[in-house]
Design a protein that fits this description.
Blueprint (H helix, E strand, L loop, with lengths): L2 E5 L3 E2 L5 E8 L9 E7 L5 E8 L4 E3 L7 E6 L4 E6 L8 E8 L7 E2 L3 E5 L2
Parallel strand pairs: 2-11
Antiparallel strand pairs: 1-3, 3-8, 4-5, 4-9, 5-6, 7-8, 9-10, 9-11
Length: about 120
């Protein structure tokens, strides 16, 4: 059974870097085919795809956030991570990690983690 679990601080100060990790079980993140994404939902808004790291380590970021987004992975721990730099209150959201065959469809999701940007 595939499971994803987000972890990271729930509170980040403005201008700092938001860092989250997704721990995956049930499948290796290096298994051919799968894309591993970060998605968020801000209060009163729809889901926003932030970017993905592919099974081969290739990264693909949302054009609107590309300048401040970085993703990486640790195959030995079966984890992938998100860093979002220079955050503002607009980055307050529930952040999800998810698996999919591409960047528009997802079959497994983490439960989500609330991140609040506030001083």
């Amino acid at each position: 059974q595939v499971q994803l679990q987000e972890s990271g601080p729930g509170l980040v100060k403005p201008s700092q870097t938001l860092s989250l990790t997704c721990t995956v079980s049930g499948v290796s993140i290096t298994t051919n085919y799968w894309r591993w994404s970060w998605i968020r939902q801000s209060p009163g808004k729809g889901l926003e795809w932030l970017g993905a790291i592919y099974y081969d380590g290739t990264t693909n970021y949302s054009p609107s956030l590309k300048s401040c987004t970085s993703m990486s992975r640790n195959g030995s721990k079966n984890q992938f991570s998100l860093e979002l730099a220079s955050v503002t209150a607009e980055d307050t959201a529930v952040y999800y990690c998810a698996r999919g065959p591409n960047i528009a469809n997802f079959d497994y999701w983490g439960q989500g983690t609330q991140v609040t940007v506030s001083s």
